[in-house]
Amino acid sequence: MRLAQRTLCSADAGVRLPGYDRSRLSRGVVHIGLGAFHRAHQALYTEAAIRDGDTRWGVVGVSLREPRMARALTAQDCLYAVIERQGAEAAGRIVGALVQALYAPHAPEQVIGAIADPAVSVVTCTVTEKGYSRHPSTSDLDTSDPDIRHDLARPDAPRSTIGVLAAGLRRRPSGAPLSIVCCDNMADNGDTLRKLLTQYASQVDPALARRIHDEVALPNAMVDRIVPAATPASLTWAQQRLGLRDEAAIVCEPFTQWVIEDRFAGPRPAWEAGGALMTGDVRPFQAMKLRLLNGTHSAIAYAAQLCGIGTVAGALADPVLGAFARGVMADLDATVAAPPGYDVSRYGKALLGRFRNAAIAHHTAQIAMDGTQKIPVRWLPALRESLAAGIERPWLERALAVWLHYLRCNGNARGEPLAIQDPGAPPLTAALCGTDSHAEAVRRVLAHGAVFGHLPWPQPFQRRLAGHLALLRECGAVALLSFRATT
Ligand code: CS2
User: Fold this and answer.
1) C-alpha span between 4 and 473 (Å, rounded)
2) Residue ID of nearest Cα to ligand 1 atom 3
3) pTM of structure
4) Whose alpha carbon is nearest atom 13 of ligand 1?
5) Which CATH number fits domain 5-279: 3.30.200.20, 3.90.110.10, 3.40.50.720, 2.40.100.10?
């Protein structure tokens, strides 16, 4: 039997139901990017606010890129399950906060109309780092992006995240303040989105740019929860657990965190009901999370991909990769200032525990995607700051070599092909493969300012990187990453 409003009563007795009358929900939030992360994160904080009795916050979910999820959710009355797993423990709930699921190319007017609706005072976004049409080297709006070019020519029929937000804002009556919360893993994510949106608006309609300045708040936010993409196996497991078939079911870790800059233009859901922390300054939380969690994640992902290890927990269980993960984390830990009340080392230890959660299959291929967007945020600021202070970060430098090797080699240690999913990767791969000299490959790849920035990298660092690439080519990842064991 499929999950729907009328079949809710058949859900397994251990599964928590929404517990409120969904017919009383009005729409108050628009979310762009209907992926698993939103459904297992922000939607649950909104669900908690609704459960507390505030029915203004029904969520209109919007997919910009693919129709499958909006279709699946619509077919089950926008209900879906989130099941938290850790070891043998599992706790499931069915979420009722979503009131509508739209695929923007099929419902452009409804999407723009929802953002323009004065009853909607909050828009949240999870569209991945590359979904903001940001030029990687300047962090300005990438006006060569085909979707932005299209939207600038036809602003009333937008395709990009920025274009859709701007079209909705343009149609909003003035005097209806809106808050847009970017929930992607970017440093200063709210400020970045404000800049991109303003740059776009200035080209479409200068009055809109002024209104964004006056009426739109874009708080920075740090989001955290490990939410693997669904697989046929996770959907089947969820079905057994729920007693119902749910095409949108999510299996994720129990941990969740949301730290939000307390800077809103109008009303918002009381996300504190779900444990959100409102604060004056999100930056220390962002730096700690982006470097320690995401930075170590990326290092694990590329090393595991080279070794043919499919999941994060599998990588942590491997002695060499486990030591590598701890080393990268320690290198990153040394570059981070603790947010108030935090012990960064304890935070790091807890992260390693979360990574070891084998009950959720977090695929290293998923984390390895879009490295050219992720590495400049996760590793390079820490590396730059350390080198400028004359400090080597041996594990992090090895992680960088591993990523570059991943981009240039055709297969993993088991001879299986590597399916690199990163639209920004081809120029780096070409730079790395265009020469037999490792030193020259390093020189050429670091010259890609879009990823590595425009300041020169110290020569000794370049020589170390070239040495790592040579060892990777000759002996493979395990040889490079076992270095502490052999010295
Ligand atoms: C991961 C993140 O896929 C990735 O790049 O590092 O999705 C990570 O799981 C989340 O940011 C955890 O909060």
Assistant:
1) 53
2) 367
3) 0.97
4) 224
5) 3.40.50.720
